């Protein structure tokens, strides 16, 4: 029952705020759209639903857009945006767990000249096997690897854990900072220390100020050190971005891949290829996106296969988008969607499509990578 509910919630999440016109598939009939909007208006409190005719629609929409790539006249837009205004509106998507009063963090830099390639190679073996109260990721940019850790406990415990599991990194007590868990959220969101917690509630109200593009991979076997050496040369190229390496293992690996829609639980870690730029125009976009796609191609021999996995929340439209199975049918092609759907969900994609066929057989809720109904 719990697994079935998990799949239903995943499908619901893919539906919220994704009904739009001008997208990959045929638009729903006008009477269906109007009926849906009437239902929203009648069922939800005033002030949480913004329709295209609403004065605040554009500003609310733009505050939710994180990259200027998705803020163009050609970008499909939702017919309505539903805004969460109370904790009860999001509680179904969250599970609270206890955390200690004190946590400890560090950010330790090691350059290419400081054996960063060796440390990255070693990190692949260490990070997924660390105790469940230690998280250690890496941000790789320019010729530098920044090792970032969160430990659920006091400074002495983190220093001891690093000394036991990863002495090569050379973490000392002076590298570590004690704080509360919520302060660590600010810290890892690049706000630093000593900032007011209210900053976490500030989503901003204007358009995004830059472009970015992300792709992702999963790594099942440790990469040899020569891969990291070749990666440094990519990070010197014009238009280079950065890599974020997030380890799995721990609680992630204790859940069976078929128990929830998210299946990538036995991988060592996830790679995010992240490019960002502020200059507008086609030339700038092609330079930065070209860098991401080039490095992504270079990594193909060393990452997951059959299918090559991807993380759904990075929303990579390079993997493919929905189209229409038949003229005027308004139903996306399941076979075409498998290309990206199985990258995100593996074998669970068919199960999600079966749920979609029961709850939304006409594909009323759709976007470029929404889950299509499984053909009968």
UniProtKB/TrEMBL annotation:
One Pfam family per UniProt: BBE
Domain Berberine/berberine-like: 310-372
Annotated signal sequence range: 1-26
Any one GO molecular function term: oxidoreductase activity
Keyword vocabulary terms for this entry: FAD, Flavoprotein, Signal
InterPro entries, per the entry: BBE, FAD-bd_PCMH_sub1, FAD-bd_PCMH_sub2
Source domain of life: Eukaryota
PANTHER family assigned to the protein according to its UniProt record, in alphabetical order: OS08G0158400 PROTEIN
Protein name: Berberine/berberine-like domain-containing protein
Organism of origin: Oryza brachyantha (malo sina)
């Amino acid at each position: 029952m719990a697994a079935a509910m998990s799949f239903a919630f995943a499908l619901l999440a893919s539906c919220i705020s994704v009904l739009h016109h001008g997208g990959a598939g045929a638009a729903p009939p006008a009477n269906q759209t109007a009926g849906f909007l009437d239902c929203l208006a009648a069922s939800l409190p005033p002030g949480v639903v913004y329709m295209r005719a609403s004065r605040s629609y554009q500003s609310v929409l733009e505050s939710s857009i994180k990259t200027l790539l998705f803020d163009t006249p050609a970008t499909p837009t939702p017919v309505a945006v539903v805004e969460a205004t109370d904790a009860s509106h999001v509680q179904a998507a969250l599970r609270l767990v206890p955390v200690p009063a004190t946590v400890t963090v560090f950010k330790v830099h090691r350059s290419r000249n400081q054996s960063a390639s060796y440390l990255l190679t070693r990190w692949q073996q260490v990070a997924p096997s660390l105790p469940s109260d230690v998280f250690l990721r890496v941000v790789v940019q320019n010729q530098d690897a920044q090792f970032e850790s969160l430990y659920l406990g006091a400074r002495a415990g983190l220093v001891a854990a690093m000394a036991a599991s990863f002495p090569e990194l050379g973490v000392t007590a002076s590298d570590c900072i004690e704080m509360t868990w919520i302060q660590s959220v600010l810290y890892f969101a690049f706000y630093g220390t000593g900032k007011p917690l209210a900053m976490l509630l500030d989503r901003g109200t204007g358009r995004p100020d830059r472009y970015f593009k992300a792709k992702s991979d999963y790594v099942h076997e440790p990469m040899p050190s020569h891969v990291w050496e070749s990666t440094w040369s990519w990070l010197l190229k014009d238009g280079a971005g950065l890599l974020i390496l997030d380890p799995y293992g721990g609680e992630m690996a204790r859940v069976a891949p078929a128990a929830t829609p998210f299946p990538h639980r036995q991988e060592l870690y996830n790679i995010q290829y992240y490019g960002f730029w502020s200059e507008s125009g086609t030339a700038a976009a092609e330079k930065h996106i070209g860098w991401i796609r080039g490095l992504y191609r270079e990594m193909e021999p060393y990452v997951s296969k059959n299918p090559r996995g991807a993380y759904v929340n990075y929303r990579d439209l390079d993997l493919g988008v929905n189209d229409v199975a038949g003229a005027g049918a308004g139903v996306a092609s399941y076979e075409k969607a498998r290309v990206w759907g199985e990258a995100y969900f593996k074998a669970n994609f068919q199960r999600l499509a079966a749920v979609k066929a029961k709850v939304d057989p006409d594909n009323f809720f759709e976007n470029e990578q929404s889950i299509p109904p499984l053909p009968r």
